[in-house]
Amino acid sequence: xxxxxxxxxxxxxxxxxxxxxxxxxxxxxxxxxxxxxxxxxxxxxxxxxxxxxxxxxxxxxxxxxxxxxxxxxxxxxxxxxxxxxxxxxxxxxxxxxxxxxxxxxxxxxxxxxxxxxxxxxxxxxxx
Length: 127
Fold this sequence. Notes:
Layout: H1 5-17, H2 20-35, H3 44-86, H4 102-126
Helix pairs in contact: 1-3
């Protein structure tokens, strides 16, 4: 499957951002910035360099992290749907349940809590 440019870039950027090399590089930049403070007399421009840089990186990373999270969520959902569909006793009505409203999800959650509680009572009676 061929990825478009943004998908490829986002995957690589997210992978790099979570690597030890990225952490070490960011740490070195902060150390270098801190060490240069006396040379720039801890000026406002010196402070603004780190503030602006970290703000821009944080802003862009939010979107990359969200893209990665969306992709992971979709993959996990597909895997769960496959497991539900493959099990003969499973309730296939819950496939694609993520499309329901919060209230509908709460109702289904309560249904399964009640089901669990009734099964626990049934097993405790057998003992």
